[in-house]
Design brief:
Shape: globular
Helix content: 55-70%
Distance between the termini: 65 Å
Radius of gyration: 29 Å
Strand order of the largest sheet: 1-2
Number of domains: 2
Number of helices: 10
Structural class: mainly alpha
Oligomer: single chain
Order of helices and strands: EEHHHHHHHHEEHH
Length: 365
Amino acid sequence: MSNFPSTVTLSSPPHNGTAKPHHRVPHFAAIPNEAISFLTPYSGLLLTLWLIILYAIKRYFLEMFLFPRCYKQLYKSMEDSVRRGFLVHHISAGTKVVLLIVGAKPFSDVVFGKSSLHDRYSKYTARPTMGDMLLVLTQLFVALYLFELMIRKSPSPIAVSHHVGAVVIAQAAVALSLQLDKEANATMEYVLCLVWAAFDVLAELWLNVAFILYRIYPKNYALMAYVFGSTGIISIMGTVAETVMVMTLFGQSWDQWDMSFKVVTPILHVLFTIAQIHAARILFHFWMKYKKLLAEEERDLMDPEGRMPKQKDGTKAGTILTEEPILGESSSTTPREASLDVSQNEKPKKLSVVGHINKFFTGRS
């Protein structure tokens, strides 16, 4: 078994015209190639326990307790496929929040800090270690994706490919750590997979929240335009940030990788990126759909010529009803309309920052 240096900076001799300038190696590339956790041989048991817990949450907490009280008729009126998706989005969103909160410390300390997998998670107890926590959360991540595939009625081929790929890669990274004498990059591969998983969880979380709101407020066109528009933009930004971070870390540790990982890792990243772009495309589709619905709703309030919005009393905007008598007429004259061209008399108002944001997301100024 080969061990990597414990320092994160590789320094070369003073530059004399022929020596290479020193370069920085990311911390995770300097972590010793060691077992993730003493729980690694029990990964299958951890996965089984998480699947049981997720099923119990679905059946006994959400279906039998929470949903009948919170959503009432909304949940009962859903078709089976919609109901399954609604359940999955709730379970997935809640689980990802747990992953992000509990995993924040070990992830940041191991990937960007100075901790190794065998360092203590808490300074007060020897157990659990950073590796213990990360392994348990890895199995929760895998269990969640398997659970989604089993519960959803008709997931898309891209969603299936993404989930299956994530499960296989995560479990392969764990399995490699059981053969440290043959796999010199086992620990590095596992930690790099954590970076992928972290961005994947962040990207999918916003999508889950968006579709929960979509099922609750489908007729609130403005809200849905904001939700899907902002979620789509966040998804694209997250994909770009993930690509920059993963490829930067991978490039900085290039000399540490075996040839097989140098070939496979970029290919896997491209596949994950395609799946995330597909998810963003769906979000942008819904955004454009709701912007179109808002435009149609606004046109319904316009007159037949499509120039002026109608008021509640049926008159056109810019029309003033006068009760005062006109010169040369008696005071008993019935009220009449005096039409004013508002667009010619008033200067267009400058939009505020909020107005520009609102116009961008909803198409309305």
